[in-house]
Fold this sequence. Notes:
Blueprint: E1 12-17, E2 40-46, E3 59-62, E4 68-72, E5 75-81, E6 85-88
Antiparallel strand pairs: 1-2, 1-5, 2-3, 3-6, 4-5
Amino acid sequence: MSALKIQPLGSRVVIKPLEQESKTPSGLYIPETAKEKPQYGVVVAVGDSEDIKLKVNDKVLFAKYSGTEFKLDGQEYLLMECSDVLAKILE
Length: 91
């Protein structure tokens, strides 16, 4: 992934949402209109606050309607307060 051309300020983070699978485990395909908004993603940029406990490439879980959506270079991202991130997904 190339360097993101945006630097969040303060305690904000930029997250690239990860889309859900378009096929269920039983083999049924989910139409685009029935898909839910993503609730997890990958951190791609962090603000300059020392209180942020996240780093780039962390996989995180966030509230369904949190953050501000924006597009940059054809990709969709979310800009949100670090406190809106609910959990870090450990692998």
